[in-house]
Design brief:
alpha/beta
């Protein structure tokens, strides 16, 4: 009788796995939700592979409030939540749940970034995972936090009319520093993500802020090691060396392989043809901006001028029919003070605010180099 029961249980588990693979193969998944909130993932970040739906690991771990730690050499990571521990070993590409190997490889590198199966991670950390086909959403819920029933959730999140206004990207240079934290808190208050271009020498002083920025789902960019105009632009070799060094620092802290760069003081006229060629050969992309807020030149008391510069710059870009508007900001006191008003105005005007998305790269450089 016991053997019969065991066989029936095994068949049941196999049927669940097969049915889930069949669902995944046939049904598109565009969104991931946690309780009553649809989580923010860039287009193309929710992926299907081997019958499993994968999302960027760092982002979803942050959303779930789980603890994520990398080993000193960056080769092992551990996720802990609700008495469960998931371990991933990069060298062997092995995933373990509470010390036992998981054969389905639910954590893996996809397109040079670390992804995790949402079904596996959710269930391993105590969540019920439902697929809602009418809104193409996988939803995670548990009994601890009160949330809507699935039907009420579907009604609440039926697609609305998409905004026809340009997409806006809020980008922040020269961190990490204490103002990075302030700016991230403001972005969180408004439920949006930004793009942070970090300087290597600053990363050395504030590694925990880099980790926090990645964990909260913001896009990270490379802004050289030194931000020193003379040494950085001394030669093509010096230029690419600094970008490679800051990339290595960031990858060790976050596990992300970052390709988007920003040249200090702008790519024109600083980045030569040779430097641009080095960027292309190394697989980097280059972003400048549409709107220069000039926030660096104002005092904290003059923060209203930064807000005014954003409004004027965005309106000028709209008049020029620019579908993607990149705004240059800095991690400084005056910018942190201006940011809430900037975001409030953009949202009131109906602009969609997104972080940089490498899967949907937008050419935005003063060199007008389509390779970058």
């Amino acid at each position: 009788m016991r053997k019969l029961f065991s066989m029936l249980l095994l068949l049941f588990i196999i049927s669940i796995f097969i049915s889930f693979k069949a669902f995944a193969a046939e049904q598109p998944v565009k969104s991931i939700a946690l309780h009553d909130e649809v989580l923010s993932f860039d287009e193309g970040e929710v992926l299907l592979q081997d019958g499993q739906v994968f999302v960027p690991l760092v982002k979803i771990v942050s959303y779930l409030g789980a603890n994520l730690e990398f080993s000193e050499d960056g080769m092992t990571l551990a996720i802990t939540k609700n008495k469960s521990e998931l371990t991933y070993k990069h060298l062997t590409k092995t995933t373990l749940l509470n010390g036992k190997i998981v054969q389905s490889h639910p954590i893996r590198f996809i397109e040079r970034n670390l992804y995790v199966s949402i079904q596996f991670l959710g269930e391993a950390t105590g969540y019920k995972v439902d697929y809602l086909p009418s809104i193409q959403t996988m939803r995670l819920t548990n009994d601890v936090e009160k949330s809507l029933g699935n039907n009420a959730f579907i009604e609440k999140h039926k697609p609305n009319t998409v905004s026809t206004k340009p997409t806006v990207y809020l980008t922040f240079d020269d961190g990490p520093n204490k103002f990075t934290i302030e700016n991230m808190q403001t972005l969180s208050n408004y439920k949006i993500k930004g793009t942070f271009f970090f300087v290597g020498n600053q990363i050395k002083h504030y590694p925990e802020i880099v980790k926090k920025t990645a964990l909260e789902g913001h896009a990270l960019g490379l802004h050289s090691m030194t931000h020193n105009k003379e040494s950085l632009y001394a030669s093509s070799k010096a230029f690419i060396k600094e970008m490679n060094e800051v990339k290595a620092l960031t990858q060790k802290l976050t596990g992300q392989s970052i390709v988007i760069t920003r040249a200090p003081y702008g790519s024109y006229p600083n980045v030569t043809k040779e430097m641009a060629g080095e960027l292309v050969n190394t697989g980097y992309k280059l972003w400048d901006w549409d709107v220069d807020t000039l926030d660096w030149k104002y005092t904290e008391a003059e923060y209203k001028q930064i807000v005014a510069n954003v409004k004027a710059g965005v309106q000028k870009a709209v008049a020029a029919k620019d579908p993607h508007i990149v705004i240059l900001l800095h991690d400084r006191a005056q910018t942190a003070k201006a940011l809430p008003e900037i975001i409030a105005w953009l949202q009131k005007e109906g602009y969609t605010i997104l972080p940089y998305d490498r899967s949907d790269h937008i050419i935005q450089n003063f060199l007008k180099d389509k390779r970058l």
